[in-house]
């Protein structure tokens, strides 16, 4: 296991969200189905919001916290997006939501693990807040998926 700073973890999370956003945007360009396009647009906006949140955290978190070392070995973004191997423009709304929830679950698990292993209260609070943010966004995604049947 290697070590990374809090900044490295935030960078990794931001890159993951940006990669997922780009994937959804690419799929939007290829799909012909209106409901799928609407869900892809919503998911791209979801990932964009979270990527911007990571950027804001960089700017508003103390250098002391950002430079803290934690036991974390960032995996490849492709591994985190493992469910996207089957991504194609003809995915159903349910399949898209399943992929989005896998990404959220991956990050929630990561942030909870980081919070449980944090040595300072400030970094513990940061990772707990990130886990809560991901959970809130996950709930929004699920609600949007449930309402997709009304579109």
TrEMBL record:
Protein name, per record: DUF2383 domain-containing protein
Which InterPro entries does the record cross-reference, listed alphabetically? Ferritin-like (IPR012347), Ferritin-like_SF (IPR009078)
